[in-house]
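Q: I'm teaching a short session on how sequence maps to structure, and I want students to see two examples side by side rather than one. Could you give me a first protein with its sequence written out and its structure tokens following it? Keep the formatting plain so it prints cleanly on a handout.
A: Of course. Example one:
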Amino acid sequence: MTGLVLKLGPKERVLVNGAVIENGDRRSRVSILTPNANILRLRDAIRPDEVNTPVRRVCYIAQLVLSGDAKEDEARHQLLRGIEQLSQALCDPDSRKQLSDATEALTESDYYRVLKRLRTLLPREERLLAASRAVS
């Protein structure tokens, strides 16, 4: 059996194709068998007031598609442009790999995977911004 397996903690909420689902009082495992279902863990969601860096901005666009708040066609162009801009700033091999994987996922309209790959860049971006503030 293939698909996405979500491991949910007690009372954890997840957005599935626009519907908020809350887990019960115990940990559970849920298998999502429908291909291309839009899934977003609400604990991982970036709030609008947190969209204050380049990587967060691109992640937020992917998140909007998953939540149903943005149309794929409009978001695809913004995501491609955002990933291209990030690739000009993040030149290390690991970042390039993650951006390449995000682009591949985007070509397959797999917005969950796009967001997953882009989120791996958040700690790196935070370190770079912290180092830049320390120099200033």
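Q: Perfect. Now a second example for contrast.
A: Example two:
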Amino acid sequence: MPAPRNFGRDRALQTRMLLTMLLLGAVYVVLIAVLVAAGAGAITVAVIAGALFLVQYFTSDKLALASMGAREVSAEQAPGLHAILQRLCIQADLPMPRVAIADTQMPNAFAVGRSPSTATVCATTGLLELLSESELEGVLAHELTHIANRDVMLMTIASFFASIAAFIVQMGFLFGGALGGDDRDDSGPSVIVVVLVAGVVYVVSFVLLQALSRYREFAADRGSAIITGRPSALSSALMKISGQMDQIPQRDLRAASSELAAFYIFPPKAKESVAALFSTHPPLEKRLEALGRLESQLQQRPAASALS
């Protein structure tokens, strides 16, 4: 049974996204206030932050693709990949995104872009070689759900704020005197306060982003199941990807930068016990359990329809 043309946005995810942005906005107002109080000019702070934000907002997708060595491919260059995405976009009532391929044996996929009309879906050569067509459909539908929910844009913006806080902490330690103004006798306490506040802001941002990132993966898995009507296909793809990670060359894992980890369908280093505590993704077992429940629900619907 085909999925409805417009499966809608995940309302719970939208609520969490709004709450995350409000909380991030609040902590960054505090950070800016502390910077100004420490002697940094309000106009200077606003101009620099605004310029960096615009650069991040308009170039983050290009930087992400470049960091993976991804290239945009046409329908003639990758007809199978384009055909699958076109079918899924019709099912999800989404515009066709740009399509890119990254030449790496790490099996993964991610979506970037400010909006559905500017989005790019990227798959690695390792993923294309590993998965069957139905499994690939499940993975690509997962990425399209991220685009439909616009959580890619929010994660990009929120990650930028966290990066700014981390940068202030680093610069505070390296060039502490500059933050305190011209009066060197008062610069020490000012720098300490700025660094401490920036550190707290970074920690709060990190916690908020991790919580949102885990939930958005559940939401994207659910969207994939609805679009394709086959949750088991995505489950099979996730198990194959997980099983392949141990065989990935270290150079490919190093190429998977930490900045992109939250955007992959499966984190490159998920099996490291310590890293798993701070993972941007929920545990594989939890994702498979959720997809199993969706599979049962979809199987029960035809039976219920037949009885009615």
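Q: What should students look for in example two?
A: Point them to this: The chain has one domain: 11-302. Also worth mentioning: The chain has a mean pLDDT of 79.
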